[in-house]
Amino acid sequence: MSKMLTKEDLAKYPFLDQSAAFIEGYNLTLSDLSAPAYSGIVGRAVERVRCSIEGGASPLQLGDPETEILSYPLALALVYASRVRWLVNRFATFEAKRCEELLKMETAPKLAEVAKASFGWRVGLEDLKLEWERLTFSLGMAEYLEVAPQFHSPSWKLTNKYVDRGRVFLDAKDFARLLAENLKLRIIRKAGEEGVKDFELPAALQPHLGGIAGLLEGKRQLYEDEFPEGLVDDARPPCIVAIMNDLSAGKSLSHMARFAITTFMLNVGESVDGVLKLFGNVADFDEGKARYQVEHIAGITGSRTKYAPPKCEVLRSFGLCAEPDRLCATVSHPLNYYKRKVRAGAGAKAPTGGEAPTREGRVKGRGRGAGAAGVGGEKGAQGRPR
Amino acid sequence: MHKVVLDEFRGYYSRLPAEQLDVKDFVRREYALLHFGDQKMIRHLKFDSVSELKRSLVEGVPANVYYSSAYYRNPQADDMNAKGWEGADLIFDIDADHIRTDCKDEHDTWACLDCGCRGRGFPPDACPKCGMKKIDTVTWVCEGCLETAKREIFKLIDDFIVPDFGVSLGEIEICFSGHRGYHLHVVSEGVRGLTGDGRREIADYVRGIGLDPKEHGFRQVTGTGPIVGPDMRDGGWRGKIARAIYEFVSGRSQEELRAVVGPVVADNISKGREKFLQNISDAPPHWGGMRGYSLESLMKIANAAAREHVCNIDERVTLDVKRLIRQPNSLHGKSALKTARVSYSDLERFDPLRDAVAFMGGSIKIYVKEIPRVRIGDCEVGPAKGTEMEVPRALGLYLLCKGAADPRV
Ligand code: SF4
Ligand SMILES: [Zn+2]
Ligand SMILES: [Zn+2]
Fold it and tell me: Is A151 on the interface with B (CB under 8 A)?
């Protein structure tokens, strides 16, 4: 074991290589764990999964590091065996958050050690002082790029990073974030691997799975299709409407606009073909090229992760936030806008262009120039409960 | 394609020493051929040796030959999953076609397919007369275009690949594409595993996409206090922006500055130009140390200046994890020039229209339909229209491949 990492560290960061070695030292199989002697470990594992589902805090029990360490792989086994994708994502996110909090409190050398000992990252300890930042870490560009594209905030773009000779410089906060995100990605990717995809829990542990299924039942509406199949026209945020108008006018789109519309459509459940149809109007349309790009974004070719549309903040900085309305003021992501409007009943036979009967819809009608009164009136009428 | 072209192509491949077709990890690549007149490539070919590939080129005489940037376990499988992707080189493509050059007025024409409106030079996005976007183009390359592409490849290597990406000159291969531009292959182990997402970030980096100067240290201390900014020696775009602004402000006339930031600020900056520049170079992070311009106007300058330092690559090629790319030393079916490898140290002196010529000696009689001025090797012809002429073999094949001439006997 690395001198720097204590048993407590293994409990905090059970994804470290050394934790795996530690567990192997026990020479236990999963079925062994069903013995009464290990009920504490099983209990803790279930607790970890439960906390991730319910979103509660799960205080580390550092007084008993063995249980912490041993319960982690079991918790993962329960999650994978559930075969519920939502739970895998949820657990991964939860673990990543938990680690990020802990990592933020570590010293720089410890952070670097954790990164090396878990993901084999070649981390440099730097001391680059810029005007108001202090970049204490550097990471190989390829390693950075394995994770950073997950974040869609402009500050994570390679273009906006301090880069030198193949290394990306980061401050401690961002480094911890990146490390945690990588943990999340690995947990999620592993779910698709051979041997994990169809993983079955030993019979003796199956009952615990039943308990977890019970917990999931309560969250069903959260993870079952959040959106109706296909696009609900009336729930589209203004930015997306504007891009679609440009498309039907045959204008060619900027890279960002194309990315935004494609990710948006895919995320609301449109098919690749559905998205391609949108682009069909544009003169520089090249079916092969476009298909490649859309599939790439959908995650069918090239990369495995599916992209989310950019946040409002990003769209705004690319000049794509067109005529935000009142609902816009309360959201920071176009998908949230869409979700809220869908929930509020947009598309329930509302004529195209009609406002959803949300509160925002009803209080509208404060003139938007000539003609607005008429339109607003219509909207008001529609806003009445039917 | 004309028989003479097929015969000459076959002759070229028979004479070609097979090892010139070699690429790194030859057997792990997919190969693809496109025959003259065909739309569809023959893909998923696997060759166990360079001589096997050579044999197939001599027999089939394809117009274009490609290999995959990707390494596969089973290159011959036609299904992506079965192929077993094991990484890919990182490729950059610079094509003179995509770059606006003044010489395009001399050799390129376009026509609107809707209303018939015509023009010279770089084609407009939409027809200026009817606004439609179906634009047909006839494009040529000249020394000017190729020189621009070469400057762009130098910029890519000297400003991005080496200093920012930390790739050494030993890990790159430069190829003249055989027609209009250059390809740069990064073949180091370190880039092989990059995902499509990661490659997109790299393409965006080189093109300056999403660049936000404010992420690079520009700030105004309190509301109206002094402006601080990056140091010209900083890494990545951070230093590049600082240097770009320095260059921009020192090299622009007052008029040109006015176009970017408006008259008041431009006049203030021109008046204090010396001091402004001196502060950037001598007193970082204190920028300007003078009044009369705001952070916002400085950001306008930063964005305008940065535009001049981005590199014009075709991003689709870079973000593809399994691109098919021209085989070194194969012939280009639209030019009869070869895809020539060039070392970095030879690049400055490299003259594609001479050094990538694949056919030496001999002459051909042709009937020229319509051409601008064209040079291949030492011979220059055109502009010409509807005439017969006897030209050196390489030039003749070039015009035949471009479809601008027919053979005469
Ligand atoms: S605020 Fe967000 S959702 Fe609304 S238009 Fe702007 S980018 Fe779109
Ligand atoms: Zn027209
Ligand atoms: Zn030219």
Answer: no
Residue A286 at interface with chain B, using a CB cutoff of 8 Å:
no
Give the amino acid at B266: A
Same domain, B24 and B62: yes
- Examine the domain organization and report whether B349 and B222 are in the same domain: no
Nearest to A321 by CA among A256, A235, A240, A234: A240
Give how far A268 is from chain B: nearest CA, Å.
21
Q: Which residues of chain A neighbour B228 with C-beta distances below 8 Å?
A: 131
Task: Based on the fold, state whether residues B156 and B286 are members of the same structural domain.
Answer: no
Q: What backbone torsions phi and psi does residue B120 show, to the nearest 5 degrees?
A: -110, 160
Q: Which residues of A touch B237 (CB under 8 A)?
A: 159-160, 163
Q: How far apart are CA B349 and CA B343, in angstroms?
A: 10
- Verify that B151 and B56 share a domain, yes or no: yes
Interface confidence, given as ipTM, is 0.91
Residue B230: CB atoms within 10 A of its CB come to 28
Which protein residue's CA is at the shortest distance from atom 2 of ligand 1?
A: A312
B188 and B275 in a common domain = no
Nearest CA to ligand 1 atom 6: A321
State the pLDDT at residue B290: 67
pLDDT on residue A357:
31
In the predicted structure, residue A368 carries a pLDDT above the cut 70: no
Mutation for B interface: A133, A160, A307, most B CBs within 10 A = A160
Residue A228: pLDDT band by 50, 70, 90 thresholds? Answer: low
Which H or E run contains A47?
Answer: helix A39-54
**Which among A158, A163, A256 has CB closest to B235?**
A163
Looking at domain A231-343, its CATH class is mainly alpha
Residues of chain A with C-beta less than 8 angstroms from the C-beta of B318: none
Q: By C-alpha distance, which of A105, A108, A167 is closest to A136?
A: A108
| Inter-residue contact A182 to A119 (CB < 8 Å) | yes
Collect all residues with Cβ–Cβ distance below 8 Å to A195 and sequence separation of at least 6: none
Domain residue ranges of chain A, discontinuous segments joined by +: 108-185, 231-343
Instruction: Give the residue among A297, A254, A321 at the shortest CA–CA distance from B210.
Output: A254
- The answer to whether the beta carbons of residues B228 and B221 sit under 8 Å apart is yes
Q: What are phi and psi of B197, to 5 degrees?
A: -65, -45
- The reply to whether residue B197 touches residue A289, judged by beta carbons under 8 angstroms, is no
Same domain, B91 and B191: yes
Check: CB of residue B235 under 8 Å from CB of residue A138.
no
**Size (chain A), residues:** 386
> Dihedrals φ, ψ of A318, to 5°?
-100, 10
Q: What is the pTM of this model?
A: 0.78
Query: What's the A240 CA to ligand 1 centre distance in angstroms?
Result: 8
Contacts of B83 (CB under 8 A, 6+ apart): B30, B72, B73, B74, B75, B77
Ligand nearest to the CA of B119: 2
Residue whose structure tokens are 């792990």: B28
Same domain for B333 and B230: no
| Inter-residue contact A332 to A313 (CB < 8 Å) | yes
Residue span of the structural domain in which B170 resides:
3-96+143-205+313-355
Residue of B nearest to A159 (CA): B205
Q: Per the structure, how many domains does chain B have?
A: 4
* A210 CB within 8 Å of a chain B CB: no
Based on the fold, state whether residues B318 and B291 are members of the same structural domain: no
Residues B345-380: tens digit of each pLDDT: 999 999 999 999 999 999 999 999 999 999 999 999
State the DSSP H helix or E strand holding residue B188, giving kind and residue range, or none if neither: none
Q: Determine the residue of chain A that is closest to B199 in CA distance.
A: A145
Question: CB neighbours of B385 closer than 8 A, spacing ≥ 6?
Answer: B368, B369, B370, B371
Which pLDDT belongs to residue A258?
A: 86
Do residues B194 and B320 make contact, with C-beta atoms less than 8 angstroms apart?
A: no
Q: Which two tokens stand for residue B55?
A: 């044999």
Q: Is A315 in the pocket of ligand 1 (CB under 6 A)?
A: yes
Task: Measure B246 CA to nearest chain A CA, in Å.
Answer: 19
